[in-house]
Amino acid sequence: MDLRILRLRLRSDSPVREDAAKLRGFFATSFNDQMLLHHHFTDRLIYRYPLIQYKIIRGVPVILGINEGADVLRDLYDRFGEIRLGDRSYSVVERQICLRRERFGCAEELHAYRFVTPWLALNQENYGRYMGASSWYERRELLRRILVGNMLSAAKGLGYTVDERIRLDLGRVREEICTLKGVMVTGIRCEFLVNFHIPDLMGLGKSVSRGFGAVGVVNSTRVEPREEQSRNDKGGMNL
To answer: How far apart are CA 89 and CA 92, in angstroms?
Structure first.
């Protein structure tokens, strides 16, 4: 299937030091009427695959909108001149917005990806199984099955039926300690090969709206997406 993907990059007067959760909080507070920005209806959490996802990539805020989420971002991307994250404010000096139709789903060939932000694969239950594994092979096989499950969950949330077997292999795995809602958790960094199209920076796993599990494209052999709209704006408030 094709997804409409909008990527909004916000370059500020200095690199952003805060995490993507604070970026999500800024948008949720500034545009509280847009439920896709914060996934809450009144005081209830909406359980679905997030159509707007927030990332901090090397100090640069990146917001990803999918389908209806792309429409929301396109309508509000120029309606603020600074980003306030906690006690710190950043002036927006450049906005890059790009809207494309991109493939998502089963592929005949293998594609290479890597997690550019930590992947939260392990919950309380499978963390014990991971730590208690008798070999590295067993750990990697557990992670492989979890990642396939994450892809199936994302596909279901986007209305896509996976009708082929997902073939997936993990490369070298590195563990990384992360903080999620004030709690220390174990994140995973790795590369993987899979017969599946995944748009660049789309999230897999837990807490993807808060910046975790962002998948980056490694190979350059994928079919180029069809570009719908792209613009690069610089300046102050009226960009």
So the answer is: 10
